[in-house]
Amino acid sequence: MTVDGVETVLVGTWAGLGELFAAERGRLEVLNTPLVHDLFGHALFNLTGEGHREARRLLRPALAGRALSEYVAALLEVTAPAVARWAESGTQDLYAASRSATGAMSARVLLGIAPGSAEAKAFATDFERFVAATGAPQGPCRHASGRYWAGRAARRRLHTLFARQAATARREGCPGSALARLVAAFDDAPKAVGPLEDHLLALLIAARETTASLVTWCLVELAGNREHTSLAAAESREALARPGLLLQREELPVLRAVFAETQRMHSPNLLSVREVVCPMTLGGHRIPAGTRVAYSPSAGHFDPDTFPEPGSFRPGRFLAGQASGARLWAFGGGAHACLGRPLAELMALTIVACALGQGLPRLPGGPPGRIRYRPAKAPIDPLPFALVRQET
After folding, report:
1. What predicted TM-score, i.e. pTM, was given to this entire model?
2. With contact defined as beta carbons under 8 Å apart, do 46 and 319 qualify?
3. Separation between Cα atoms, residue 305 and residue 16, nearest integer Å
4. In the Cβ-directed half-sphere of 359, how many Cα atoms lie within 13 Å?
5. Which of 181, 256, 315, 376 is the most buried (most CB within 10 A)?
C-alpha cells in the first residue's frame, strides 16, 4: 500500500507483528523524516547500529525496574493536586487536562522540575513551541515555516535548561527523578550515542503525548462502562492508600485489565515506519533492502483470531487469561521497542487512579465525534469531562 506517498509493505495482523519484531534486529531501522532529525538530533529513535544499541543500554536502567519505585511519590505529588482541581473545577477538556498533567509529571520525573517553579514555566513555554514545530511542513519547505524556526530556537533554550538541571543533579542529586541516573550514565558515553539533551527531548515528548492519549481513552471508556468503573475505582482508592501497589504487577487486577484493554483498542500510534537494511522474509514474502515496512499496532490489536469481539471494550479478556497485556504492541516491540513503557504505564495508572479516587468520569457531551490518529490518537474537538463524586 501507499504510506505518505511511498509504496510500503504493511504488517497488520497480530501474528505478523510478532514475526516482524522477532526478525527486526539487524534488518530494519527506524525511518524518520528530515524534520524529525532536525528537531531531535541524535535522540534514540534517530540512531542506528551500535550507537542505537549503546544508547538503549545507557537509558534503560533509569526508566524501568527498581528505579520506578523512587518515582512514585514524586508522581503522586504532581498528579494528586492536579486531579483534585479537575474534580473541583467542574467540566473541562479531558485531552487538554491530560496533556497538562502528563507534561508536569514528565518534567518532574525526567528533569526534576517541580510544578509552579520558574523552571517549570520556562520549560512549558519552550516545550510547547518545540512540540508545535513537529507539525511543520515536511521536506525542504520546512525552512520557510516560522513554526519550524521557532521550534529550533526553543530546542536550543531547552538544551540550555536541561544542562542546568543536569549540573544541579550532578552536584546535589535529584530525588524522585531519573535525571541523576541519566547524567551519570552519559558522563563518559561514546560520541555515537549522542548528547543526553537530545534523548531527554525524545523521552519528554513520548512521555507526555503517548501517556496523555492513553489516559484520555481510558477515562472515555470508563465513562461509558460503569460496571468496570466501580471496581476500578475501589482498587484506585486502595492504590492511593498504598502507592506501592502501583508497582506490583499482580495487584490492582481490574485497573490493569482496563488499562490493557485501552491499549488494545486505542493504541496511541497508528503507524510506525521502518526501512529494510538487510533482505528479510515476512509472511513467506521476500522483502529486499531499501523497502519501506510499516506496522500498525491498532490493526494487530483488532485481529479477531487473537482478540474475539475486537470492537467491544472487554477488560475481562485480560482477567480471564484469554490475553496478556505484555503482548500488546502499543509500545512497539523488538529491537526498537519503547524503553519508556514501564514509566509511561506507571504514569498513566497513577493519573487514572487519582481520577477515580476523586469520582467517576462523565462525558456530558458523549464520546468524541471526530478523532485524529497522527501523531497520536486524540479527539480533534474539545471533549467535555467531569468527575462525579460518589459515596464510598
Report:
1. 0.94
2. no
3. 12
4. 18
5. 315
What are the residue ranges of helices labelled H in the chain?
14-23, 34-40, 49-63, 72-89, 94-106, 118-133, 146-172, 179-186, 196-224, 226-241, 253-265, 297-301, 341-358
Which residues are bridge partners to 51 per DSSP? none
Contact indicator for 270, 374 with CB cutoff of 8 Å: yes
What is the maximum span of the chain, computed from C-alpha positions, in angstroms? 62
Report the candidate in 376, 358, 362, 341 with the shortest Cα–Cα distance to residue 60. 341
Q: How many Å separate Cα 361 from the centre of its chain? A: 22
What integer pLDDT is reported at residue 391 of this predicted model?
Answer: 57
55, with CB counted inside 10 A (0-12, 13-18, 19+), is: buried
C-beta of residue 162 within 8 angstroms of C-beta of residue 71: no
Give the separation between CA 80 and CA 184, rounded to whole angstroms.
30
Placement of cell 517553579 in the chain: 117
How many angstroms separate the CA atoms of 4 and 15, rounded? 25
Closest residue by Cα to residue 259 from 288, 239, 284, 285: 239
Q: Which helix (H) or strand (E) holds 285?
A: strand 285-287
